[in-house]
Amino acid sequence: MYIFYGLLVIVLLISTIPLYLFFTEYKPPNEEEANKYRNNRKKEADDVVTITTLNAGFCGRDRAQEFFTDGGHSAGARTREERFDNLISITSELREISSDIFCLQEIDTHGTRTSDINQIEHFASELTNHNIFFAYNYVSKWVQQPLMHPMGNVNSGLALLSKFKVKSSDRIQLITDDQLPKRLLGPKEAMVITRFDCLSLELIVINVHIMPYTKSDELRKRQLEQVINHAAMLYDPLKNHVIIAGDFYFELNKENETSRPAFDHNIIPDGFALYFDHDHPSTRSMKQPYMSEITELLTTDGFIVSKNLHSVSVKTHDYGFRNTNHQPTTLTIKRK
Predict the structure, then answer these.
(1) Which fold would CATH assign to domain 29-335?
(2) Can you tell me the mean pLDDT for 249-273?
(3) pLDDT at residue 125 above 80?
(4) What angle do CA 14, 77, 286 make, to 5 degrees?
(5) pLDDT single digits (tens) 278-302
(6) DSSP helix, strand, coil percent of the chain (3-state; round to 5)
(7) Computed over its alpha carbons, how large is the radius of gyration of the chain?
(8) Is residue 298 classed as helix, strand or coil in its secondary structure?
(9) Cα torsion through 288, 292, 296, 301, rounded to 10
(10) Which terminus in the chain has less CB density within 10 A, N or C?
(11) Taking 60 as the threshold, does the pLDDT of residue 97 lie above it?
(12) Are 210 and 224 in contact (CB under 8 A)?
């Protein structure tokens, strides 16, 4: 009898988890303002602007880690010490690069996979020359993936750091997988559109992270097309400059044959150009811990830029994938 009641309790507990996730599902509006942490830094407008994109991998994907979505078995670093060490090192790298604008992806405010370390608050305290805006794109009360060492509670999103004062910053919902149970466990990806008066015309920067937690390349392509079409709609060559910055998931370099599907260069509209570092990969596979001799390297991070801007340079900074599975990539641009 005791065994029966024990099994009954287990069954009831397991059956309540989907209901709990359903009733606590993150349901963002299609458009909302990003969260402002600080906006009182006011660097003077300049003819040259530097922008860096980095997927920080919630500071849990250092070179010793593997990750289940790439064929590994874990969800990243498991100890608070490892996670905080990665955060400190990434902050140091950002301080060293010292870009005018940083577009960061996979930044967590709290959660199991980051030992409840608020990474935004850390950036705010350490990178004091930058204004900071943040928008969630992944909120789930519990993600039981992978099974033995799950990510758990997740609260993650996109961060925008800027030395220039921000005019506005808005989160726009992207197309997502609305099928159950995927929509309860996966991210609600978004683009964050931020406006500045730092060049002769208004500068619009779109921070984006194309969905990693899906097997559907078609969904990823639809998200990318949505972002690019929105950028083209905003673009007025007499009134503004537009830059899309982020982790595009697809392999950007036509010369690289990798496990990732190739980026479709035909979707770049007239008036825009794609920029990335052709010589230095920005991403590593996380099928196993990083080993320079055998780990697959990819280029997924870059920029799509309106042609009324001139690209001076684009550079991926080689930190040896020390603290995340991506390398920061910096674009230097100036007005024509």
Answers:
(1) Deoxyribonuclease I; Chain A (3.60.10)
(2) 95
(3) yes
(4) 95
(5) 999 999 998 999 999 999 999 999 9
(6) 25, 35, 40
(7) 20
(8) strand
(9) 110
(10) N
(11) yes
(12) yes
